[in-house]
């Protein structure tokens, strides 16, 4: 049975607090098995007979909105995809500042159009590098997220689609824990 990771937007941010045991019970109510959560930021690992990540996203989004009372954008990746994303190196690791830089990964439902990709990459600065690979955006920042001129909200506005960001450390941990 396929194993997936759901990356949920708007869980335990912006006043939307959801306990992880409750979130697990919601996924179990949807008929998923072996449900686990990984840190309290909306990462849910589960097994499903479905082979369509798009169908899973729609099913989960509808159920969470009905149950929680607000929209929860959902981005599904197989554990194999997450391991690949975790191992991807879009930027020069030999950069002398690379160790102190922070890498974020944004998950999207669809691959952005070429024009949107070009527009996004044009927002790169000396402090913020951006790279698009499929349905993921890699953002390397030389500043704290709160100090950067770039943000997840800006990314969504530029692309015209929802996204959810995770620190690459979280993705690497998920990729190694659920290969």
Would you kindly provide a written description of the structure presented here, covering whatever features stand out?
This protein has 179 residues and is α+β, with helices and mostly antiparallel strands. It has 2 domains: 80 residues, SP0830-like domains (Alpha-Beta Plaits); 90 residues, Alpha-Beta Plaits (2-Layer Sandwich). Helices cover 34% and strands 25% of the residues. The chain has 6 helices and 8 strands. The strands form 2 sheets. The protein has a 4-stranded antiparallel beta sheet with strand order 2-3-1-4. It has a 4-stranded antiparallel beta sheet with strand order 6-7-5-8. Strand 6 and strand 7 form a beta hairpin. Helix 3 crosses helix 6. The chain starts with a strand and ends with a helix.
Quick recap of the structure?
With 179 residues, the protein is of the alpha+beta class.
**Number of discrete helical segments:** 6
Q: How much helical structure, as a percent, in the residues?
A: 25-40%
Average the pLDDT over all residues and give the rounded result. Answer: 93
Side by side, the strands of the main sheet go: 2-3-1-4
Poorly predicted sequence stretches spanning 5 or more consecutive residues: none
- What is the count of structural domains? 2
**Main beta sheet:** 4 strands, antiparallel
Globular, elongated, flat, extended or rod-shaped: what is the shape? globular
CATH architecture of the largest domain: 2-Layer Sandwich
- Portion of residues in beta strands equals 25-35%
Radius of gyration using CA atoms only: 16 Å
Q: Tell me the series of helices and strands, N- to C-terminal.
A: EHEEHEHEHEEHEH
* CATH fold assignment of the largest domain: Alpha-Beta Plaits
Distance between termini?
14 Å
How many DSSP-defined strands?
Answer: 8
Sheet/helix structural class = alpha+beta
